[in-house]
Amino acid sequence: MTTERSSNISQDDQVFFDLVTRFINEANKMNDEKHHRSRVSAALLFAAARYNAFTWMHRGDDNNPGQTADEAEKFFAAHYRSMFLENVEFLKARAD
Description:
- The protein is mainly α.
- It has helices at 11-32, 37-57, 69-95.
- It has one domain (11-95).
- Helix 1 (11-32) crosses helix 2 (37-57).
- It is globular.
- The chain starts with 10 loop residues before the first helix and ends with a helix.
């Protein structure tokens, strides 16, 4: 799987999509190493959850937590849902 980028995106967005491509390329290598795609997917999702939990826990001043763990979970779940559905539509359009 690869990502496509448009020439009409900002430099910051380009950097973001370059990072996405690096993660996808690494996942593809793992799949090529005989790890089943579902295992690679589960590992990537778990790694993202761990990294996001760590990042959330170390987000700043303990005197100003900003949001509760429940609020953070809802935020991340909503973002994941949105990105998942956006990518389903993107891949459907490429398949046509």
